[in-house]
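Lab channel / #folding
Pinned by the channel admin:
"Please post every new chain as: sequence first, then the structure tokens as a reply. Keep commentary short and put observations after the output so the thread stays searchable."

First post following the new format, from NK:
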Amino acid sequence: MMGQPGDITMDPDVVSITSRCANWKLDPPAINDCDNIKSIKELLGKEVCNKPLRVTFRSKTLSGGKRPNWMRATASLGNKENNKSTTPVRAVWTCSNADADTSMTFEEVNSSSGRNVKKEIGTNVLEDNYEDCLKRLYGKYVELEVLLPRNIKKGGILGGPPASLVYRVPINKGQVNPFGMVAKSRATVTLYPKGRTLAAANASGRDASSAPRDLAIPLGLTNVHLPLGPGLVDPSWAKGRKVFWKGRSLGLV
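Reply from TO:
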């Protein structure tokens, strides 16, 4: 859907996320294994490094038409909901796929023929990492971009796009509850210190491999917490029934 004409708000996965599990919580990115940790922490700031990110996905698309199929999200940094200590941040999101993601394709020169050959990340389970293979397997994932405060010291270019963090989470419908939505792995976190260009963010299909590459710094993985929502069993009906007693012996009903 990303980068293609059409109403993304009618996509079944978008409807499921915005109507059933719109509130997500993401832990701070783990940057201990990155190179230049000190510089990255200065780019991100203390709040991004220490506070969880709370996101509410909305189905309202961005106005202006510069980013088709991208939608708005309400996001804040903080430990508790509805707390004065939370810091609001700007965020946008979309349902992307591996073919529309410029980070999942690249070109390399064939040593024998000398021609550029298109390579796809996530197709070789023996060489590629687990999260990239899941993106190829399930075919769709949430791409959340959080815009960092515009600051020249943080790598942003005056008049250009602000620095941003991009979270990518493979999703799929629940196996027990078909109306549920499940995150199939941890989120991959990527820092774009000079922001993302519109050409790279809107690339899709065959154009993804030839789209301009923005400076990207992989930060690793982080945990994603989705609300459980209402249970499948009515609590008033289950009250007092032995099958729902806690502490019973295993194997006895």
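NK: Confidence is low (pLDDT under 50) at residues 1-5.
TO: also worth noting, Residues 100 and 207 are 8 Å apart (CA to CA).
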